[in-house]
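Field log, afternoon session.

UNIT: design team B
ACTIVITY: writing a sequence onto a fixed backbone
BACKBONE:
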């Protein structure tokens, strides 16, 4: 069955989340006078990322809602369990201001979307919220490239659950076999997509490799040829 649509991850796939996260944390900690409390910005960011994973898993498991997982992340990061909800929200919003100031698409994003625009439909599936990701795409100037933006916070389940991929396919009124999913995480994105019946493509920008069972690209410029080969991509790791 031919591929008719491309379903996209956002963060660290089309949007340079890691760079923006570091720049935003550096600006925020400096403004808050907190750099010395963590040893370095890199150490602070690693702690923030660890807590993001912990509290996101709680959200995925249904133990806490989206907003509360943010608040708990802030409380743990600051070692301030008594921080009120308004105080935690205000701290997070100040961080977001610095983070958003560093937002940028990867250089290959728009050229490849242009190359694919005439032949494939496009949508987004993200493990975030529609409030965050719809706004992000609009600020970055690419929201109109995607027919639908489907997010875990509203679905109630997240990648790699098959239900998340199937919900995004349903938003396009396509069966999974007609959809390719592109994301930067080998298991959450590529393997999850394959197990849900889609064509999964791992965007390995760092050139990590080591997953020969997955179809892998290292740059979005490799994607058009892969899709247009129309062979269900043949052997994995074609561009490895």
């Amino acid at each position: 069955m031919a591929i008719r649509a491309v379903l996209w991850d956002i963060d660290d796939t089309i949007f340079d989340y890691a760079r923006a996260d570091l720049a935003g944390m550096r600006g925020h900690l400096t403004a808050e006078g907190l750099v010395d409390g963590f040893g370095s910005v890199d150490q602070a960011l690693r702690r923030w990322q660890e807590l993001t994973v912990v509290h996101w898993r709680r959200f995925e498991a249904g133990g806490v809602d989206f907003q509360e997982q943010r608040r708990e992340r802030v409380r743990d990061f600051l070692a301030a369990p008594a921080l009120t909800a308004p105080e935690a929200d205000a701290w997070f919003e100040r961080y977001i201001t610095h983070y958003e100031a560093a937002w940028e698409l990867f250089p290959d994003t728009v050229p490849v979307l242009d190359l694919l625009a005439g032949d494939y439909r496009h949508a987004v599936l993200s493990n975030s919220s529609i409030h965050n990701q719809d706004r992000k795409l609009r600020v970055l100037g690419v929201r109109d490239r995607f027919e639908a933006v489907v997010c875990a916070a509203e679905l109630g389940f997240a990648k790699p659950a098959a239900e998340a991929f199937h919900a995004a396919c349903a938003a396009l009124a396509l069966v999974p076999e007609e959809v390719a999913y592109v994301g930067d995480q080998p298991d959450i994105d590529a393997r999850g997509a394959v197990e849900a019946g889609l064509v999964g493509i791992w965007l390995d920008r760092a050139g990590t490799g080591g997953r020969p069972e997955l179809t892998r690209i290292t740059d979005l410029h490799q994607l058009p040829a892969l899709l247009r080969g129309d062979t269900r991509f043949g052997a994995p790791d074609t561009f490895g």
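LOG NOTE: Strands lie at 5-8, 121-126, 149-151, 179-183, 199-203, 215-217.
NEXT ACTIVITY: expression trials, pending approval
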